[in-house]
Amino acid sequence: MTDDLCVQTHRQNPDRPRPALDGLRLCHGHHTELRRLIAELPARHADLTRPRGAGGPKITHKTDPGLHIDEAAANLRTQIQHDLLWWCTYVTRERGLLGPRRDDPFTIAAWLTLHVEWLAANEHAALHLLPVLRELTGRAIGITDIPARHIQLDEQCRTHEDGDRCDGIITIVVRGDEWTARCPECRIDQDPTPYLRAAQTGQWITADGVIRLAAVYGITADGDVVRQWKHRKNIRGIIGDVENLYESRSVLDYLTKRQADRERIGA
Ligand SMILES: [Zn+2]
Ligand SMILES: [Zn+2]
């Protein structure tokens, strides 16, 4: 193992060695992921206190049948706490430091964040901490998952690895009021804003584009529905040679209005 290469495996072209950041054992992407997963873990831990909301139906855990969802959540909370403390102890022991004064996940994660450069430079931590964080995060998401809508946009992923743009096609995942752009290729969750903006900047969009945008707003539409919207002058469109085209601004205005109406009725 060479000292200046990232110790993690890479999904795209796994055989190509990736340079680590200066003095570290992780590349830029994995270093960023390490920092993010540590920072997010306390919130994941907190979410597990209300996995399905109070008084919800009793749901059996997918990967652990027979185990009640609340037990699975409680076990995972213990595990997260335990693993955070374990890594904290690892740093204090290796560096001869005093640990944080409190042992709640927020305090420990904040303390570990202060040492993230050291963790990324330490061979053992660089290799083993990231998979632990990924596993805990994945299990927490699995338990706290609320039903999500998945909408595929025809937008190419914007992440780059070593100058190559990822060729994944972005899916927008809408979970409650949380919107995420997810790439099935690089598996990086991203800010959906630039993708939505790109999907919206085309002045004229086809009926398919209207249907996709409507899905983003939780509205099911088909070709007939889109034609009706135009007929009722809810949206503006033109009759094209091959297919009709709709003005994206008017579509967005209409969808936003529909969503606001729905929220008002629901409130
Ligand atoms: Zn890497
Ligand atoms: Zn990607």
Cα radius of gyration in angstroms: 23 Å
- Count all strands and give the number: 9
Helix content: 40-55%
Strand content bin = 5-15%
State the helix count. 9
Indicate the overall shape.
elongated
Q: Strands of the biggest beta sheet: in what spatial order?
A: 1-4-5-6
Overall structural domain count: 3
Classify the secondary structure makeup into a structural class: alpha+beta
The profile of the biggest β sheet is: 4 strands, antiparallel
Comma- or semicolon-separated keywords:
267 residues; alpha+beta; 9 helices
Describe the model.
This protein has about 270 residues and is of the alpha+beta class. The protein folds into 3 domains: about 30-145, no CATH class; about 150-195, no CATH class; about 200-265, no CATH class. The protein contains 9 helices and 9 strands. It has helices at about 30-45, 70-95, 105-115, 115-120, 125-145, 195-200, 205-215, 225-230, 250-265, and strands at about 150-155, 160, 165, 170-175, 180, 190, 205, 235-240, 245. The strands form 3 sheets. A 4-stranded antiparallel sheet has the order 1-4-5-6, covered by helices on one side. It has a 3-stranded antiparallel sheet with strand order 7-9-8. Helix 2 packs parallel to helix 3 (about 105-115) and helix 2 runs antiparallel to helix 5. The longest helix is centred in the N-terminal third of the chain and has 27 residues, at about 70-95. Residues about 50-65 have low confidence and may be disordered. One zinc ion binds near residues 186 and 188.
